[in-house]
Amino acid sequence: MGAKKKAETKSNDKKDSGAKGAKGKDDKKGDAKDTKVKGAQAVIVRHILCEKHSKKEEALAEIRNNPTLDNFIAVAKVYSEDKAKQGGLLGLQRKGALQPEFEQVAFALPDSKGNNLHIGEAKTAFGYHLIVVEGRK
After folding, report:
1. Is the pTM of this model over 0.85?
2. Which residues pair with 45 in a beta bridge?
3. How are beta strands 120-124 and 127-136 bridged, if at all?
4. What is the separation of C-alpha 43 from the centre of its chain, rounded to a whole number of angstroms?
5. b/e 80-99 (16+ beta carbons within 10 angstroms → b)
6. Rounded to whole angstroms, how far apart are CA atoms 119 and 5?
7. Whether the Cβ atoms of residue 125 and residue 98 lie closer than 8 Å to each other
8. Can you tell me the distance from the alpha carbon of 18 to that of 16, in angstroms, rounded to the nearest whole number?
9. Greatest distance between any 2 Cα atoms in the chain
10. pLDDT tens, per residue, the chain with 137 residues
């Protein structure tokens, strides 16, 4: 019964989202996040690993000049200290297989396709990561 009541509340919030302002935005954001990660047990992920924060920032600036997946791959080949030849491709990674800090960011990111690039950042024991998810399964 609790789930039904919650669903009704969300439905009512959406109808009144114009009048409620920030509350409506939060509900939409939450709904979108739930949809993005629902059922995903694995992600196809690319990353750029840099030992130094300054190098990661340089790579990020290069990507922001042309925020496409193809450019991310090209920048990974130049800047990444791991998997550079593969354009940062880590492939299909299941939950529990990655560093917790990296995994949290990767599973929260929406898919990146073509010109629609979504970049996440994480710091692990290996260094600083720029993360892009290409798909999920």
Report:
1. no
2. 91, 133
3. antiparallel
4. 10
5. bebbeeebbebeebeeeebe
6. 35
7. no
8. 6
9. 54
10. 444 333 333 333 433 433 333 333 333 333 333 434 445 799 999 999 999 999 999 999 999 999 999 999 999 999 999 988 899 999 999 999 999 999 999 999 999 988 899 999 999 999 999 999 999 98
